[in-house]
Batch of 2 targets.
Target 1
Amino acid sequence: MNSGSTLRAMRPTFIFAAIGIVFMLFAPQVLALFTIINLTTAIALAILALSLALVWGYGGILCFGQVAFFGLGAYAYTIGAINFGGSTWAILLAVAVAAAFAAVVGYFMFYGRVSDVYLGVITLTVTLILYSLIRRTSGPEYKIGNALLGGFNGVGSPPLNLPWNARAFLFPEQVFYVAMAALILAYVFAGWLVTTHFGRVCVAIRENETRAELLGYDARAYKLGIFTISAGIAGLAGVFFCNGVGRVTPDVFGLYNAALTIIWVIVGGRGTLIGPIIATFGLFYLTASLGGQQTLNNNLVLGIILIVFVLLVPRGLAPTIADWFTQGRRGRVGAERAARRARRRAGAAEGGK
Amino acid sequence: MKKRAAETVVETRGLCMHFGGVRAVDQVDFALEDRELRCLIGPNGAGKSTFFKCLTGQLTPTAGEITIRGTPVAGAQSHEIASLGVGIKTQVPNVFDGLTAEENIWLSARRWHGGARARTLTAETIERLRLGEIRRSLVGRLAHGQRQWVELGMVVAAEPWLVLLDEPAAGMTHEETARTAELILEINRTAALIVVEHDMQFIRMISRRVTLFHEGRILMEDTMDAISSDRRAREVYLGHRA
Ligand SMILES: Nc1ncnc2c1ncn2[C@@H]1O[C@H](COP(=O)(O)OP(=O)(O)OP(=O)(O)O)[C@@H](O)[C@H]1O
Ligand SMILES: [Mg+2]
């Protein structure tokens, strides 16, 4: 695609990014600090949802263990920041560790031509292995540099600081700005990626791997590529998650989080990037508001939402709404055209009199 | 021996593809010359599609050799064989259902060309195959015949020098079939072709040399006229097809 059509294809992405920027600038003015800190965690989860939206919705790869890269990112950031005494390199380390781990796991899965079902099983198993491994690190001997891993208690995460100035820690409000900016950048990046030749080939492979191969595309390489990129984004999500929470524990690798990630993308809609992001914010606030009361069990509500969506809105929110929108517009245009035709005919009849 | 004027572009020797006890392709020695247009016929289950799948790397042969322009390709990956310049239309249309017809064809052109050239090539192919009306339609919503044309478009847009077509006229109207025959002759100006078809009229329209498959083996290889006057050929295939 040329730059003109790329821009056209990316117009919705830019509109949502602009809305995100407005939100980023105004939210701290109106919301309480407590809400802003909570929001940082929600933003981190939204970046995680974005990463799965990319690899599953566009790459067609159902990765049950996206939280493995998320958790690795969180741990790599925390351990890196403690050892480097600053966060700048730690962020890059988090992204690199998550992506490199995905590249290795992905290499064996894709080049081994593992089937889709086993791919889901393998990614989930890897996540659970990481969970139980990191839980067992609760002795003084489990130390990476200056960082004690702390077993199931986890490690306290140093907050972000200004680039290359380890003493200038960011306040929670400023971390919110950075997280929101990261979400917007990651969103625009992913939105651009899916319009590139690489991105279109990934979508083609999702649609029909045999045909893509018969056209001469090496499906394995493209799948590995999008898998690795999305893992890097998940690693970035981990950075902001442990910043929002203030520490990282083995629970980041937990089954609950793994399932939640899938639910966000199902509710938000596969094949879009904005849907899962919005679904994450929505469900985050739903569970937060349910957390305060006792009548309804949180997991029960999530389960019901999942079932409702799978049965009634199988394509998810964003694609369904987008359909209404285009159908509505097409209907309007059609009606206008019919009306114009009727008017013309009426005019001709009158002229003939 | 035949006169060896043209280069042999496809050659198989002792090619076998067995599924358990089923000998779908059995000891096939086959040769195709450059710019040749060959038809492959045979009853259902004769092994024609399986033979194609071996040539394009969708199946790894049980035994035997395949060379394409001198490169041994038995057991190679599909994308490697396609990258030699081989285009295939499969029997069950393999298209990108969730994408538009235009994008289907663009993905083929873009594999070999930069952005600008791929765009013109896409536009030319759409024009040439008269897909203008459906270029923005999702291929999954098209009729069977139209999906066949989109797939043909993908094959053409890659500008291959070797083209394999598995029942290209299936599900097409008379007029579409005639156009397909025209297109095949046009492709043949720059590429060698192997075409599998059941439609005898169609074969008479395009072919010079015909290979008759039966139970995984090559039974005969001759002109359509010679084959239709052969007793054995009539027994296994043509007899029940008029
Ligand atoms: N994957 C497979 N596993 C087992 N048997 C197979 C497989 N693929 C094909 N066969 C068998 O191999 C034989 C040849 O099948 P093939 O599809 O090549 O026939 P064909 O000549 O293309 O027939 P048609 O004219 O119906 O398309 C058939 O008996 C079929 O059942
Ligand atoms: Mg067949």
Target 2
Amino acid sequence: MPRAKARKEEPAEAGSDIVMDEAPTSHQPESRDDMSVDQDEDDEVEAEDDEVEEEEEVQRVRLLPGSTPTAASFEFLNESHTLGNALRYIIMKNPDVEFCAYAIPHPSEAKMNVRIQTFEGTTAIQALEKGLRDLQDLCDVVSDKFIEAREKFAATASS
Amino acid sequence: MDYDPMVMDDAEALGPVVKISQADSVRVKYELSNSDIAFANSLRRVMLAEIPTIAIDLVEIEENSSVLADEFIAHRLGLIPLNAEGVENLLYARECDCDGCCEHCSVKLMLHAKCTGDENMHVFARDLVPVGERVNQVLGTPVFSDAEGLGPLILKLRPGQEVKLECIAKKGIAKEHAKWAPSAAIGFEYDPHNKLRHIDLWYETDAKAEWPPSEYASWEEPPQEGEPFDYDAVPNRFYFNVESAGSLPPDTIVSEGIKVLQQKLAGLIHELAEGEGDGMNGDYNGPRSPEYGTGADGFGGYTTPFGNGGNQSSWGGAGGTTPYGTTPYGAGQSNWS
Ligand SMILES: [Zn+2]
């Protein structure tokens, strides 16, 4: 628990103040905040048009504020443990990755966050992309192995 | 997987292995080994909740003089397994250009039954008949797995009672409603001897004597008497038992599950590649984080606790000097399980 220790040594108020003000893990994208203002001011027809556009451009991965090239947090919309845990596992396999973890900050929000910290030489975004591709490769292998095993089973069962 | 095999565990470097122990029209039992529990569980979850199938979603009731309420019958109809072969050629109703539903995004089924005799009448899924155009000739047909070919019992009618209704079956996934689940159940098991102690077995006097051994107990080496606990051990062999509800054959459920997972990944890779055009090269006007790289050096415009070296680890160096100590991530760290 280096984390708890680290905070205990901070002045107590400073630590808690910053935590209360800045916790950004699942705040709405700024564009959406603008949207609600627009809707209040504009007439209804225009607001409806905006809504349709918003729907089409829904962004499923977002970089959270406070990220740097080698240490970033990503927010995935409409993803869950299904992707999160497997992705975390495969990203951790990358030797250029120092740290990777995932969390679902709140059970009633369909959001999944992934934190990636890499060593010098690669970026968190590259590590994420590589993780996605590696997981795809793993799926390919398991899929092929399953079909192969199924055919082998059918052959032995019929003979 | 283009990693240096040296980095991986020996067993894992060989790659995943699939062994099938039973396969028929209802279930497939297989072992996935040399894989991680995270991936095995993803596969289980995706097979359970994210494979598209077809189920009755809208019911228009013209006549219902049975003892069951309209909504009760509608719910029962929704749960009837319909053949999902070729469902990939059906559109989601919300993605179709039509107004409401059409033959490209739905299958219409009719049910009309009246008890004219003096005995109670049973209405089965067989009495549900698909009508109109369909993507193919089997999609949306109720599945009969009983010997008589009747399908599930929907309701019973007393003499003189009648039901007449029209159903719209749509494509969907079980994450939205369980009626779209292709699997009746998915067995998932590992470590039959509980060597890893992931389970705390309840017992009266002796857990070993009171709990029946798993059917896979003979597949793995039982623990030696007095064997010390291995703290580094991780599960490696996973036993799946995929049982179909009838809409898709069991081996198709496995293949489709992997496919869904791959589509999910492909979609994200595509989005990431799209975002990179304007996102990776320092021009962050796109929908990415407004704080990321707005300054000339890529970090201007805000003060970040990460600024003094992004890859300096808070995990490597103990003590309170870590730059992460005062960040929101520091506080939220317990969430990153
Ligand atoms: Zn349509």
